[in-house]
Amino acid sequence: xxxxxxxxxxxxxxxxxxxxxxxxxxxxxxxxxxxxxxxxxxxxxxxxxxxxxxxxxxxxxxxxxxxxxxxxxxxxxxxxxxxxxxxxxxxxxxxxxxxxxxxxxxxxxxxxxxxxxxxxxxxxxxxxxxxxxxxxxxxxxxx
Length: 143
Fold this sequence. Notes:
Elements: H1 11-19, H2 36-55, E1 66-70, E2 77-80, E3 85-90, E4 93-102, E5 105-109, E6 116-124, E7 127-132, E8 135-141
């Protein structure tokens, strides 16, 4: 990086030595461009960030996750968390219940009774439509 040095040095040591004007090679020539090492380091860090970001690129986020508000009155919130918790908020109350969602079917378990209720749902853009006993309830994604 900063010349032909034998052995592997930490990047911070190379940056420090280059910025202090250590010889670049065995012939004793001084480093002429002190900005080269920090620029290379920055480029390597950017590449690392891109590689790490690409690792999760193949995974699709569950469109159900997030907070939804009832479209009609705007007073009830349903927050679907990735750990399988549904947080219901409304009229000054908050309740957490476990849920599962698969194939357009949402199953919610009452923690007190242990009973599970299943309802159909679909997502159309930023709208969540729940079908409860033949009636549809629309919700919008909260920003």
